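Structure ticket #2291
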Amino acid sequence: MVGKRGASATGVARATRRMGSEKMDAAASLLPREPRTERGRRTQRAILDAAAAEFGDKGFHDSSIVSITQRAGVALGSFYTYFESKEALFKALVADMSGRVRDHVAPVLRDHQGTAIAAEGVALKAFLDFARHHKEIYRIIDEAEFVAPADWQAHYLNTAARILERLQAARAKGELGVEPNEAHAWAIMGMNVFLGLRFGVMDPNADLDAVAATANALLRDGLG
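Resolution: structure written out below.
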């Protein structure tokens, strides 16, 4: 027989498991539903692109599902086929834009034949180009800190992890004189983010090759 204290503990454990299960179910409900057809993929893509423009123009709170579907040219019912809510769409958009930055930079790096330091300059130039053509990324990622904090954090952690992986590979080949760590990766990422803001978003006429070259010289030579 279980005493009162044991019964109480058992009840708490069951409640804790139930709450954990409910949180997992809630998180799963926010994930975008995977389209099963090419038409579905096009529709979902249109919604994501419209959301990027809408959130970029108005911000999360002043945007609506109706305005997003109108911009996308899809029926309101189609929205709920793929997304549970505006919050779910925003979370999916943060992940989507983070992935698009990665996919924009990755092929440029694959084709690069120079040193690891020079590769960071190539990666920066590619990012500056992306930022210039997708200025909304700054507003969306900034708002994500409050609307979708886990996705906001994942965006930066994953970006820094990719940079650190490149630096560690360069160190293994003898191309770097120091053992790279997380601080190095975040320093490079921070520089890239603010260069993108200044010369990709604020100044549409800046010479991006020159900006990337200046930043890359800083990495290569330092300020000493």
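Closing remark: The radius of gyration is 22 Å.
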